[in-house]
Amino acid sequence: MKIRDVVSSIEEMAPLTYQESYDNSGLLVGTYNSDVSGVLICLDVVESVVEEAIKKGVNLIIAHHPIIFKGLKRFNGSNYVERTVILAIQNNIAIYAAHTNLDSVKGGVSDRICDLIGLKNRRILSPVREDLFKLVTYVPNKFAQKVRDALFQAGAGSIGNYDSCSYSVEGTGSFRGGENTDPFVGEKGKLHLEPEVRLEIIFPKHLKGRISEALLKNHPYEEIAFDIYQLENENKQVGLGMIGELSVPEEPLLFLKRIKEIFGSACVKHTEISKKEIKTVAVCGGSGSFLLRKAINQKADIYVSGDFKYHEFFDAEGRIIIADIGHYESEQFTRDVFYEIVTKKFPNFAVYISEINSNPINYL
C-alpha cells in the first residue's frame, strides 16, 4: 500500500481545498508513491513522536497540526521544527497533516467535541461561501437520466441533508455540424432541432474535476454545451465550528465541571455565569475566539473553545458564557477521528495512536 492510498482516505472526508489560506495541510515530508509499513497518529509532530515511529517500525505519521507553517530557509537543527524534519528524513518517515480542512467538515474536530458533550440538532457555526458551483448542460431527452445519474454518482446534487437534487426543463436545441463533424443526431451541414433537457445541478468545488469527467464520459454529444457557475450561497455542510443543543438543559457550573472532566482540562477559564441554564452550545476546536460573534448571533448560551486572550473575554458582554478548555484539550480527540478513518478503510493495517503527550502547556 502506498502513502497516497492512506492519505486519500482522509482527503475523501476532508479535502485539502477546505483548508484555510494560512494553513499548510497535506504531505509535508515524503513522497506519495512510497510504500507504507504502518501509521502513527498524533496531534503534534515533535522529535519524540518521530522517535516513537522509529521504535514502532512505521514510516508514516499523520498529524493534526502541520510541523511546517513557515518556510524553512535552512536545516541545521537550530529549532525543534528543523530537528523534527531532519530526523524524519534521515529515517525515511513521511509526515502528513490534516488541519483546518479537518476542522471544516462534519465528522471532524468540532463534531467530535459535540459527540463528547452530547449535542443534538447540530449545524456548522460558520458555513463557507463560494464553495458551491452549478453545472448547467443540455442533453437529448432519452439520455437525460443517464447523465443525471452519472453526475449524482460523481458526488453532485447534495443540498443539506438531501441528495440526488437537480432541476430540469424541456426545450429545443439547435445546431449545425461542420464538415469535420460526426454528429450524434442530425446530419452534418444541415441545421438540426433536437428536443433536449436543460439540466442544472450543484456540487462543491473540490469535485469539479470529477463532475466534469462524469459529464464528458456520459453525455452522448460530440461537442457538449455546458456552463459552470460559482455560487455565492453558503455551503452549510462545510465550515468552522459547530452549534447544537443539549437534550436536557444543565446548570452552568455543573456543565463547566462536566466538560472539564471530559476534556481533562487542568482548569477551565470562563466568563461570569450570565445564564440560568445551558441549552444551546457552540464549539470550536483549537483557537476559536474569531467565532465568538457567530456564537452570540446564533443565541448560544455558552461557547466552548480554546486560546482566548484576556481582552477577548470582555466581548462576551453578558450575552454568552465563554469556556476556554485549552487548545490541546479541545483537539486531543482528533487522533481518534484519524484512527477511525484509516482503520475503517484499512482494517488489517498497522495503525497506532501516539503515546506522547505533546501539550506544551503545564499547570501548577
UniProtKB/TrEMBL annotation:
GO terms for cellular component: cytoplasm. It holds the Pfam family DUF34_NIF3. It comes from the Bacteria. Keywords: Metal-binding. One of its GO terms (molecular function) is metal ion binding. SUPFAM superfamilies: NIF3 (NGG1p interacting factor 3)-like. Transmembrane segments: none annotated. Gene3D superfamilies: 3.30.70.120, NIF3 (NGG1p interacting factor 3)-like. A divalent metal cation 2 binds at H64. A divalent metal cation 1 binds at H65, D103, H327, E331. NCBIfam families: YbgI_SA1388. Homohexamer. Belongs to the GTP cyclohydrolase I type 2/NIF3 family. This is GTP cyclohydrolase 1 type 2 homolog.
